[in-house]
Amino acid sequence: MSDMFGEKLKIALFGESHGAGVGAVISGLPAGFEIDFEAIRRDMARRAPGNSDLATPRKEADEAEVLSGVFNGRTTGTALAILIRNTNTRSGDYQPELPRPGHADYTAQVKYGGYQDYRGGGHFSARVTAPLVWAGSLAKQILAQKGISLAAHIARIGAVEDTRFTQPDAAMLEALSSLPFPVLNPDVQQPMRDEVLAAKAALDSVGGIIECAAVGVPAGLGDPFFDSMESRLSHLLFSVPAIKGVEFGEGFGLASMRGSAANDPFCMENGRVVTATNHNGGINGGITNGMPLVFRVACKPTPSIAQTQQTVNLQTGENAELSIHGRHDPCIVPRAVPVVEACTALCLLDALL
Amino acid sequence: MSDMFGEKLKIALFGESHGAGVGAVISGLPAGFEIDFEAIRRDMARRAPGNSDLATPRKEADEAEVLSGVFNGRTTGTALAILIRNTNTRSGDYQPELPRPGHADYTAQVKYGGYQDYRGGGHFSARVTAPLVWAGSLAKQILAQKGISLAAHIARIGAVEDTRFTQPDAAMLEALSSLPFPVLNPDVQQPMRDEVLAAKAALDSVGGIIECAAVGVPAGLGDPFFDSMESRLSHLLFSVPAIKGVEFGEGFGLASMRGSAANDPFCMENGRVVTATNHNGGINGGITNGMPLVFRVACKPTPSIAQTQQTVNLQTGENAELSIHGRHDPCIVPRAVPVVEACTALCLLDALL
Amino acid sequence: MSDMFGEKLKIALFGESHGAGVGAVISGLPAGFEIDFEAIRRDMARRAPGNSDLATPRKEADEAEVLSGVFNGRTTGTALAILIRNTNTRSGDYQPELPRPGHADYTAQVKYGGYQDYRGGGHFSARVTAPLVWAGSLAKQILAQKGISLAAHIARIGAVEDTRFTQPDAAMLEALSSLPFPVLNPDVQQPMRDEVLAAKAALDSVGGIIECAAVGVPAGLGDPFFDSMESRLSHLLFSVPAIKGVEFGEGFGLASMRGSAANDPFCMENGRVVTATNHNGGINGGITNGMPLVFRVACKPTPSIAQTQQTVNLQTGENAELSIHGRHDPCIVPRAVPVVEACTALCLLDALL
Amino acid sequence: MSDMFGEKLKIALFGESHGAGVGAVISGLPAGFEIDFEAIRRDMARRAPGNSDLATPRKEADEAEVLSGVFNGRTTGTALAILIRNTNTRSGDYQPELPRPGHADYTAQVKYGGYQDYRGGGHFSARVTAPLVWAGSLAKQILAQKGISLAAHIARIGAVEDTRFTQPDAAMLEALSSLPFPVLNPDVQQPMRDEVLAAKAALDSVGGIIECAAVGVPAGLGDPFFDSMESRLSHLLFSVPAIKGVEFGEGFGLASMRGSAANDPFCMENGRVVTATNHNGGINGGITNGMPLVFRVACKPTPSIAQTQQTVNLQTGENAELSIHGRHDPCIVPRAVPVVEACTALCLLDALL
């Protein structure tokens, strides 16, 4: 248990930040799908570090080698394995005895008895999401062929909020995916950037919210009692290191609503059953209802900050201070957007197969 | 996939609101545990309808028959099955062609092609949570023996908020569990009740938030990449029909925080590593850190309301109106508290085995 | 792990020989299938004790109550639960300190620390196969609708061998299913019965072999590397207490064959690819090839025999003697035939869904 | 389903015979285990081609690169990935339209619609067992630390039979593992070799039987109803392409035995419960009983033979003839010995974790 996910589409992740590389084995893909490797590269670039003044200046090529499962440019239907070599790893001076607050250093130390690869967070590094984005990008292509489009935008950074999805459609989501800084309201872009740069200047970091939508999702996906669409999506989303909250439709906003407002009335539209509103985010009773699937995730601020922090020395058992050097993201939210999309695509494809 | 959950502790749920009954098969329990059936009955009563003016007046005995897995009052270690007969089912006049907004009626119709048992929501009825509470109550007992306590409280109903857990401990959680209307601040009880009664008077319903805490949880539970403690808990919690949001620690609040505030500094306390704050809800990198596990779930307002609602007639394909009669909860939140506790107990026990 | 099986069609078994009853929860069934309860009853009767002088005279009604998942005579698509009450349990004088040779008494004692329900073998009783036969009989009906027929025959009892399947077809398998003592060559029936009666007279028991065939199985079922059709079938078959060997096609006979004889040459037949022989039992590379699926299982002799046996006293730690009284089968093979069919049907349906 | 196996110890296999390479991701390993890479290399060499006149002369280095999960020579506890590059692949003239009898060519064609990598059998090549042997060899080391030893021998090739395991112990199994041609009775070695060479001379191949034993296995492993030790082992063993039969203890021999002979009487030995005989192969009721675990597998003759064979042309739909050229094993049995050991080690470790 642990590094493998999925029912029909299964994915196994491996790798550490400073080892040979990171990668994935994807099992259960349909055979014969012609892969658009260029599109995958574009998604990988959206996640890659070093592409913006908002992110870490650390550059990584993130070029994936396909080890198996592709023949003549198409999926074979058997396990597809990829490997992304680590290239830009500084053999820094790690201090595994000083766990970094907010990171998995301490919990990994307890769980693995000190044998974990602690360099750069090891298996807990966000770098492990690179092969996830590769897999998710392929899943998006397969979904597109089935008429399903999806994209996410930065819904909030610090105190600055974007507007919410109202009536997402395929064209709008397509356009969103191509933006380097995906927001719905262009006016929030600069204030959001300012939030990040202010945090960076303060040797600090800042959190945010990502909202994701998928359209063209057929009604009927998801299974009671234990594999509701919300269960599946949240399971995968909460694997992503920074994510600490997931809500569907109005989510926590439903807590202060009345049923008469929260219920989405059904109505006919061009001979098709739709809901007049979408407060439930396209899911009723754990099963998709054919309306846009909409959810939001909360990203905590990057735990790596340059400010001095309080910690303990695990060797001496005394309180200690820690300053994290190195190249870190003052805000992980922009780079997390394709990761959220990848999780969504993988879950939807798994449910559709 | 679907009606079965868990890795080592596995649970299969079955049943419909108006069929023979509901029940569960629980596999992987430790052998030799002496069951406190009285304690289970108390938890069942907290979930049962008919116990308060805030809930549906419909009474159900909810007496569970143990079919297997218990011998001389103790668990045998093999599958434990329970059956809760349905006793108070009105053979009402159901209108399956008019899906109730906010319910699974329409999505079940699509998924099962009209063959689902539509009476009272069938398998999608909250009644299916009764055996879940039974199983969770047993899990709580086993956890208690391992020094783990947990309880939930009503954190919000409509606009009224309770205080949050600050430093939960076993005694406080124990006391909380015995309250008929569990809140931390007794002063919010009446305002919350007023919210419910106001919604009821308006032939409406209202939502809320439940906050849950577990203490005594050892550090080291949860597995990267795909079985983080958040992933496991949210998977089970999002199976519960009313739940539309889950957040750990500060959750969505982390979006507007800086890293310097969100990171929980480590410090030594009586020779033990603790964190000075607990904004991450006791989980770092998906693994428990030994601090209280704290999370919140958003419950949507009960979809069954007496007001007339818009829907469609699935037979004629025309818009229609619907009035839901019967005995319904104006607010499901109080009865959902033991369900949230049950999910937590089952997940923790599964991770501990 | 343990009491649950399957990928898409999942089954959870529960129950003990002398508890309230035995049963199953079956998840993942297609919705809308009209169940032929009479046909299920016939299969249940084939497994039930008390129907022949070759079997235990102990009678059990084995009438299953459907607890959920059936509405208006059809499957709902959600979890189908059944319960078979125990009715004929003698509250005998059990001696759990004297483990019966060949039974699970000792291993259960070690595994469950003495808390297992030891009466009549408890959860290890062959009685737990009753709900499996129920589920398998339903699966057979669903398969029949898809053009797949299957049946098993007694291939050997003691020293007496039946002929093997050569070119099984649907009509022949149908006929086989209706025989009270299913053999291909009617001449072996009496000699086989004599083997059983001789063992019975000697206060002993005797083993045998069951051969099963399925026709109409489409090519393409089974998945490399780890879910070959052989893997799936053997996994389920080896759960059945008495089964100690499984072989596909020529099985162990292939060990002494040459490749030129063992390879099944392909040829065209009425525009369809078939194999001229079927030494591989309809499976190549773990995937069905469209030819009849044929396999054999070895059943050990019933461990319960009336002869005095050597054992140990687990309380005193001394060697001891044991005489098993009660009503036991001198040969379990005839009653195991529908169990083998049930396993086959469940595996095939799981692979087809 | 498909390329992933295991409950606690999970393994995902990938790769094709003529692609970039083959490999595995192993999840759930204990942290801190110091790997003896030299011992793994020795096991890999036992499986590797080109080491004997009985095997294919095709040489492959089979050097595995560890991509993740090892730090400072020890397991980290997170996913361990290995990659074995393909080096000696002849870009031969493949004829995918002519499926080779006995191979997965035809079934893969049906299942994957012609998109499978057909070169050298692709994902169905026995080469995919190389990473399995690597993983199993590591598992053997971990088991050895827990006092469990295991080894297999060639029990039969063609008509020549080795003796069977009687009372295997750790020293004997250790010695067996180091033999280039592992048999219990040295006198059968030359006759077995002669069988292989005779088949080779006849442009043919020959099958055989492998018997495996594990000692030091604690009582109590395996779970009813669906995860008996036999179920788990057979599931993994039947994934190996050549294996068509699995039997535990006396296996099919039990069919002609009486209960009084087949039951293994319990007796005390040095204060420990043992069985006087071991006809059940160390497993009662699906659970290990502390006696040696003993089972046998049937290997079919290598399907690749140089003789002309009958097949069909999938493009023209006509009967055709096929001659397989290239370097093939006249008998796969010797090279399959470490594969059977690997399956055994992985299953036992999974059950022990």
Chart the SSEs and their pairings.
The structure is a homotetramer of 353-residue chains.
Chain A: E1 4-5, E2 10-15, E3 21-27, H1 37-47, E4 64-68, E5 70-71, E6 74-75, E7 80-85, H2 105-112, H3 129-145, E8 149-157, E9 160-161, H4 170-177, H5 189-201, E10 208-215, H6 229-237, E11 243-248, H7 259-262, E12 266-269, E13 272-275, E14 283-284, E15 287-288, E16 293-299, E17 308-313, E18 318-323, H8 333-352
Antiparallel strand pairs in A: 1-2, 2-3, 3-7, 4-7, 5-6, 8-9, 8-10, 10-16, 11-16, 12-13, 14-15, 17-18
Helix pairs in contact in A: 1-3, 1-8, 3-8, 6-8
In short:
The structure is a homotetramer of 353-residue chains. The first copy, chain A, has 353 residues and is of the alpha+beta class.
Distance between the termini of chain A: 22 Å
Sheet with most strands: strand arrangement of chain A = 1-2-3-7-4
Q: Per DSSP, what share of the residues of chain A sits in E-state strands of 2 or more residues?
A: 15-25%
Query: In CATH's first tier, which class of chain A applies?
Result: Alpha Beta
CATH architecture of chain A: 4-Layer Sandwich
The most extensive interface between chains reads: A-B, 109 and 109 residues
- The CATH topology annotation of chain A reads as Chorismate synthase, AroC fold
- Total DSSP helices of chain A: 8
What can be said about the biggest beta sheet of chain A?
5 strands, antiparallel
Question: Shape of chain A from CA axes?
Answer: globular
Radius of gyration of CA atoms of chain A, rounded to a whole number = 21 Å
β-strand number of chain A: 18
| Helix proportion of chain A | 25-40%
Uncertain runs of chain A are none
- Provide the succession of SSEs of chain A: EEEHEEEEHHEEHHEHEHEEEEEEEH
Question: Averaging pLDDT over every residue of chain A, what do you get?
Answer: 94
**Considering the protein shown, what is the CATH homologous superfamily of chain A?**
Chorismate synthase AroC
